[in-house]
Every structure is written in structure tokens, then in C-alpha cells.
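cron nightly-structures :: item 1 of 1
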Amino acid sequence: MTTVAAVHTALPPHRYPQDRLTEPIGDLCLGPGADRAVLRRLHASAGVRTRHLALPIERYAELRDFRESNVAWLTAGLDLAERALTTALTQAGLAPADVDLLVCASITGVAAPSLDARLAGRIGLRPDVKRLPVFGLGCVAGAAGLARVHDYLRGHPGGTAVLLTVELCSLTLQKGDDSRANLVAGALFGDGAAALVARAAPTGTGRGPEGPAGPVVVATRSHLHPGTEHLLGWDVGGGGFRVVIDADVPALVRRELGDHVREFLAGHGLDTRDIGAWVCHPGGPKVLDAVTDALALPDDALTPSRRSLAAVGNLSSASVLHILQGFTEAHRPDPGAWGLVLAMGPGFCTELVLLRW
């Protein structure tokens, strides 16, 4: 049995109201004298009130190329990763030396040695810790990473595994790119890191009291949607990561997600009405509306996702962990309640994780 022992999100200190970012992002993406009506509409309708950025907003104009952006990702990302991971371990009553597996996901920068390797000595992970750096899953990595951590712990009774996600989306914004996808990304995404600690059985070093047990992972499912590779991802070029967001994503969600989720739940004697905690990746207002329609959910079912989107923006792989943190703290479900972690990402793919409190 995999138990979620703790989840913690670390956010950069540079926090801005959405309307404070609109014009500076326009300066980065649009040419002099360009019409900003579309940009302003996108920022107003993104469902985002505030966002945290890896750098002060005025610093982005000073980044000259992909190398400088990637150095900024590595520097800020390591600091956020350390905060997220050490805090989550403390909350779980564990020490870094208790970690047997560290899965580290990011799609907003690259490094070799990877983030997890650079973090190991910095925080005191064991030299024999198993590491799995992951690139390419994007927004789905929070759910997929939890599923893969569960797979590992099923074969390692008594083990402790950590999922760490680090996403500094602002550093991928393309200067001088007025494409709709780049403008949408500039209106929607925020920066942050999150860590989830999972255990197959209680373990610890006596460094602190353990908090109340979190939800257990009951089952998982992955699904690739054939012929949809073009819908979401990166177009990698000399300027770094140029975002691909196809306008057909909400239509695909409406068309295919419902049957996929209902079949998964039915295999466990459940339907959507049995789910009390929807931990759904906040891909944006249109995607959340599409999920609501596809699953015929009550209007308030995805309120936690909309609340997260408004507070911090879309954090890519860290978003579902940010939402799950709310369910393990202030909005904790009753014992026995069912939850579903649901995320989508490049592939186009869907990942489901069934939880029970």
C-alpha cells in the first residue's frame, strides 16, 4: 500500500498580479506598435489572478539566449527544489537519508548532471539513492510521477520514494514570438516546484512526529491518444523551447476523456459520483470546462483546480501536487473518501491515479 505522507509546494518570491504582467510580457513578445488587444484579452480570460516568477519581471528582457535562460532555470530550480523537498520530508517526519528513490521531473530546462544529482549532496541524500530524472511528460508528470512512484513501492515494502517536480515556465517564453500559443503560455503559466513523499510502510529516523496519514494509492492508468502527437509539447530550436498548444485540445478532452475515466472507475466498482476529491490539472479555463462537460461533473467539482490556477497559474507538472497539497491540509476529505488525480500532457496522453483517504 502506497501512502502519500506529505506534499509541499515551493514558489519563487517574485509574485505579481496578472494585470501587472500583461504589458511587460507584451514588450517581450510583440513588436513595437503591435496591436495588444488579443494579448490583453488572453490575460483577462486566463483564470489567473496572481503568478510567481523565477526572476523579477524586468530581468527577462536581459536574457539573451537559451543558455542564459537555462542557467537561470538551474540556479532558481535548485533552490526551489531544495525548499520543496526538505519541507515535505520534515512534514512526513523523515530525513533525506530515508529516501530510497527520487523521481525528478521537469520540462522547462535541461542539465547533466541532472537536478536530482546536484541536489543529492546539497541536502544529504544517501550515496546509494536511486534516481530517475524525467523529461518530456510536461503537465502530466505530476500524476504520472505519482503512478511510477507507486509502481516502485509495490516492489519495495518499507521503502520511501519522493516525486519532485520543478517547472519554471516563464523562462521558456519566446521573445519576439507573437504566435497565439506563445501568447497563451505567457498568460497562463507560472513557476514553482513541488515534492511528494510516499511510503510503502512507516519509516523514519525519529527526527519529528509524523502527521496524519495521507491518502493511499489504489490504482493507476496511463493512456496515449493515437494520432495526437501534434497537439501539445515543444518545438525545440535555437531559441530553446517554443510551446505548442493546439486549439483542438479541449475538443479532444470532450470527445475522449469521459469514456476513459468511466471505464477506469467502473473497474473498481465506482463512477464519477463516488469521487469526492477531484485533483485535476488546471490546463486552463477551456480545458477545465471540457473536463467538467466530458464527465458531467457538478459545477463546483473542479473548484480546487480553478482556485490553484487563480492563485499561481498553470505550474505544469507541479500543479496537481499543489492542488493535492490543499486536500492534505486545509480541505482534507473525510476518511474513506475517494479521490482521482487526473492530468494530461504531450503525447497526447492522460494519466489517472485513484486515491482513498
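cron nightly-structures :: done
The longest helix spans residues 66-91.
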